[in-house]
Amino acid sequence: MAMATPSRALRTALAPLALLSGAKSFRDNPVIGSRRLNRLGLHVGRIRLADAVTAQRRWRLGRRIDPADRRQYAEQGFVIRENLLPPEQFEALRREVYGSAWPRLEMRQGNAITRRVALDRTHLRDSHPQLEALLASREVRDLIRYVAGTGAEPIFSLQAILAGLPSERPDPQATLHADTFHSIAKAWFFLHDVAESEGPFAYVPGSHRMTPERLGWERRQSLEAADHPIPYHARGSFRVGPDDLAAMGLPAPRRFTVKANTLVIADTRGFHGRTASDHPTCRVEIYASLRRNPYLPWNGLDPLALPWVRGRVGSLQLTALERLQQLGLAKMPWKPAGQGPIDAGR
Ligand SMILES: [Fe+2]
Fold first, then answer.
1. 89 CA distance to ligand 1 centroid (A)?
2. Superfamily of structural domain 24-293+302-340
3. How far is the CA of 127 from the centre of ligand 1 (A)?
4. How is the chain split into domains, by residue range?
5. What's the gap in Å between 98 CA and the centre of ligand 1?
6. How far away, in angstroms, is 270 Cα from ligand 1 center?
7. pLDDT class for 5, splitting at 50, 70, 90?
8. pLDDT at 345 over 90
9. How far does residue 39's CA lie from ligand 1's centre (Å)?
10. Angle between helices 138-148 and 129-136 (to 10 degrees)
11. What's the 269 CA to ligand 1 centre distance in angstroms?
């Protein structure tokens, strides 16, 4: 009989514990993926409990948020801020981003490449003051935290999406999907206008809400997800089709064709995706994400908020991912792509 590898044995032992975390893979976790337990309501129960705990955390975070932004989030699942920076400041920020050579990482998915640079406030302070000021902005951080429903530290990167590249396989992120079962935030601050033909971000307004129709759909997915042929779906990022949206009473996705200097923050447990592009495009943005264990009742006590750590979150996250990969506990999809301009073509 084959012996289980240490990482496999560890994963099996930790499987039930993962129920009280943000773990989401139906394929990799036999408890989360159990058809019997999900028929008894495990998946929907995890959603309901996460939502109850998140609601009280978000309520406390809401005291710092403009009522109009709170309303937009509640109704749509995203917040938009146009003309975020004064024009001179925005131009200075653009010069900092486009005028530098960056240590880049790349991940290819189908016909799209995501190029990313981990941003550390500590290292930007002297060389890129506008960028550092944006990352330190209390307003931006508070909005990201509100949408994520947690007071933890957002992680910022500089990002370019090169879409519409020649490939046999399509971009998997162009299929509408939910990232996970609980609120998380992703934010994009666009450094140039994004036109309809440039593969804009799309989001189904209101799809962050767990209506009875959505919970019914979630339950049905949870019974089949462990064996789903699409790996992303099997790992808990459920794909959704137009018929499903209609059955849940949801509208068509909104495409975020935006002007430069616009910030979009979305709760990506709502249905979203990149719009497919049929010609090569390159979108450059400051990107941030925030996700934390949804079952923690508190907003604070985030190790990433410790003074020494806070300024180095980007590179520390990268190092942690590399270590987890060495231990066989995570896959590192990013490949080093040398030092260079963020928008260099392929
Ligand atoms: Fe996504």
1. 30
2. q2cbj1_9rhob like domain (2.60.120.620)
3. 32
4. 24-293+302-340
5. 26
6. 9
7. low
8. no
9. 26
10. 40
11. 8
Read off the tokens for 230: 């699409």
Q: What is the pLDDT of residue 172?
A: 73
DSSP state of 284: E
C-alpha of residue 42 to centroid of ligand 1, in Å: 23
Using pLDDT thresholds of 50, 70 and 90, give the confidence band for residue 2: very low
Quote the tokens at residue 29: 């976790």
User: How many residues in the chain?
Assistant: 346
The two beta strands, 112-118 and 155-163, are: antiparallel
In this prediction the pTM is 0.90
Q: How confident is the model at residue 47 (pLDDT cuts 50, 70, 90)?
A: very high
Give the Å distance between the CA of 66 and the centre of ligand 1.
Answer: 26
CA of 59 to the centre of ligand 1 (A): 25
Is the distance from CB of 156 to CB of 275 less than 8 angstroms? no
Residue 328, pLDDT score: 76
Residue 346: what pLDDT?
65
Average pLDDT over residues 267-284: 89
Q: Which of 34-38, 66-70, 104-108, 328-332 has the least mean pLDDT?
A: 328-332
- CA of 271 from ligand 1 middle (Å) equals 8
Q: How far is the CA of 268 from the centre of ligand 1 (A)?
A: 6
* pLDDT, average across residues 40-58: 97
Helices (H), the chain: 6-14, 35-39, 42-61, 67-76, 87-98, 121-124, 129-136, 138-148, 212-224, 231-234, 242-247, 307-310, 313-326
Report, as an integer, the average pLDDT of 140-148. 97
Q: Give the distance (Å) from ligand 1 centre to CA of residue 161.
A: 13
Q: What is the Å distance from ligand 1's center to 310 Cα?
A: 25
User: How many angstroms is it from 178 CA to the middle of ligand 1?
Assistant: 6
Q: Do residues 94 and 56 lie in contact, with contact meaning Cβ atoms separated by under 8 Å? A: no
Percent of the chain with pLDDT over 90: 66
